[in-house]
Design goal:
The protein is α+β, with helices and mostly antiparallel strands. It is built from 1 helix and 3 strands; from the N terminus they run βββα. The protein has a 3-stranded antiparallel beta sheet with strand order 1-2-3, covered by helices on one side.
């Protein structure tokens, strides 16, 4: 499954600081723009994976279904 998110990347002195606009907690940094992008992809993957594991452990009988919103 592939989804699209919005990366916000800002140069701060010698570092690039990055976060995902749609998901709080997904943030990172890198010395180069490429490194910041790589780190952000990894941070996003880890957050999504962890959230799925936590949801599965806490709500075994919960219903899961897709949700779509227009923004």
């Amino acid at each position: 499954m592939q989804r699209e998110f919005t990366a916000v990347i800002q140069k701060r002195n010698r570092w690039y600081v990055a976060y995902v606009e749609e998901i709080p907690g997904v943030n990172t940094q890198g010395r180069t723009l490429a490194e910041a992008r790589r780190n952000l992809r990894e941070a996003l993957r880890l957050i999504l994976e962890t959230n799925r594991q936590l949801a599965a452990a806490g709500a075994r009988d919960a219903r899961r279904e897709p949700i779509t919103v227009r923004v």
